Input
Amino acid sequence: MGVYKKILVAIDTSEDSWYTLEEAVKVIRNKDTWAVVLTVAPQFRGDLGLVFNDIHARILKPYENLLAKAQEYFNKERILSKFLLEEGDPYEKIVDIAYSENCDLIILGKRRSNFQRFLLGSTTARVIGYSPVDVLVIPARSKVSWGRMLVAIDQSSYSEKAFSKALKLGKFYNSELYLLSVIDLPFEAITEAPELYETLGEKLKPYLQDLQNQAFSQGIQAKIFIKEGDPAEEIIKFSQEKEIEIIVMGSYGKTGLKRLLMGSVTEKVISLSEKPVLVVKS
Output
């Protein structure tokens, strides 16, 4: 039985989104795992009558066709699944359905874009901020694989949750864990005390070794690394150098605007990463 029991996959009518669905099947294709496939059409508000009904039907048609195609695909893959078409704000509907269907993972795609920054107002950012469960973000044309898993560690309770989930996933998928901490110091501090990096690194090492030993005790291979610099940039650079297949991180969002901020490091990594990113919420 897989780590996740009921997975919500949110799709739209774009080509990239269908690719996300195909990759999501790799995560879902486990015994006793259910899938809920959701697409959200824009809500049309117009005058009542025949004209409205005709326009409304035309708006819904591409989404209905999409779900029919998805249903045919999932039936072929013999995956237990449910298909839903909603109207309204995508992020609200995705989060609402995750609650009502008791899902324990949401899978979203990230479209190809020339913009590096991840817009806080985007559907993906809002879903991550408000989701009660983990969110897996799959960049366009990336592959979902669990062999080499990077876990970002910053000694917070959020990263400890991420590590705990990585242990479960690592045991299930026989993964190798790469536990990475990044020391980020202000320029002024480095100027005044250049030895700080070494001092903090020595204090950090026993903490990482304890996590490594926890992994070893469960039969999971784990390596520890300490880097210096901008955390998000170092995480991305490290993932490229080590040919990491998936990045696992915690989320800092709690209430109000903080739900949207997620933690600037998580936000930036999702924005820049060409590999799937699992944001652990529960």
User: Anything to note?
Assistant: Residues 1-141 form a domain with the Rossmann fold fold (CATH 3.40.50.620). The chain has two domains: 1-141, 145-282. The chain is about 45% helix and 20% strand. The longest strand covers residues 34-41.
